[in-house]
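subagent[fold] <- orchestrator: predict structure for attached chain, return tokens only, no commentary.
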Amino acid sequence: MKATASGAAILALCVVGFVADGPLASARAAQVMQPVQKTILATSCSQTDVQAAIDAAADGDTVLVPRGTATWTTPAVRTPSVRIVDKSVTLQGAGVDRTVIVDGTGKLSSEEPLSARSTADLPVRVSGFTFKDMPRRSSAEPALSISGTRWRIDHCKFDATGTKGRGIWGGTQGLIDNCIFVNCTQGVAVMGDGDASWDRPLSLGTAEAVYIEDCLFEYTEWGDGAIDAYDGARYVLRHNRLVGISIGHHGLDSGPYRSTFSFEIYNNQMDGRHMPSQGRAMHFRGGTGVVFGNTLVNYKSGIGLSSYRSFDRFNNKGGRWGLCDGTNPLDGNEDASGYPCRDQIGRSTGQSLEPLYVWANDFDGGPMPIGVNDGGKGHITEGRDYFRGPPRPGYKPYAYPHPRRRMPPSNPTEETWPGPRKPEDAARS
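subagent[fold] -> orchestrator:
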């Protein structure tokens, strides 16, 4: 089907929005700036019809998926139901609870309903879908996985009520906005690029992160966290509403991955009702960043800062990385305790000291409590590895709303959108 002139103009604006916040990564990506060739209509929302429409699309095309409900299943072992591979497309559903994808996939890794991978770092957008009934797989595969540095997922819903699946697995730079996450084990999991991330300079307040903004995380069932992060991840969680859930990320203490590298958490509204007995709002196990301007109610404790390699938290002698005990060559070993532990809270590029800063948070009308769990080794010390009170010197948040939201609204009935967006943002989402 040929695109209309108006459709081409709108999609051209979409393409401009993809690249507005950074230079083009390749000559091929530059081609996406050219006038849009076509809009392709999937015959139905079945995985066969959607995959056929994606296969027929070229860089810069939009694939429109109609209203309906379909169950997507595993076409082959370790294969996603629908794949976008090395192609710059917008995959556009009819809207939340209009185009509904039921997760009927398997329990192995790489068997999620939708996967978007780009070795050429091409921009991809997914908008206007509901994913539901995501199973809790042994490897915690998500409903949607996406890679690269120039992607956007917006105006989607991920409902894992009764099934405990994960919503989105994303890396290493991108945008998630105006989405709803319901009872997911993890709403968003961010994966960095490991050693390469830890070798690059600290980049707080820039586009070099996965941004999660203006989303709703709503939990009445237990979940592991609204967000988790691994292996040099850099993420920003801002202007969201979280109900019945906590946030946090992994460190250099479990599995084969490096610690999360950096995090920025600000201007979120958090309500701890429905939380299990521990009731902790935030938990960080490595890296550095900023936490400020958040409002929290109904939590039993505020921020937990942990160094699990300090005291063998998992009874596995520190796993792959070993314990931080003064004898491990991976660590700084400035004293007999092993300090600084590799990738610990307050560490950055080249294991340089970059303290975490926490300020101006409202915790039930008072200051944010901060607790340390390092086995009493003194590896995480206030006034050295983290500060509470003063803002981080020289820090300035990245532009809000994120520049990729300059693309036209994806939902034709956006005025009825149920997310926590502020009225003044409606025209520019």
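orchestrator: received. Logging for downstream: The chain has a mean pLDDT of 87. Residues 5-307+395-428 form a domain with the Pectate Lyase C-like fold (CATH 2.160.20).
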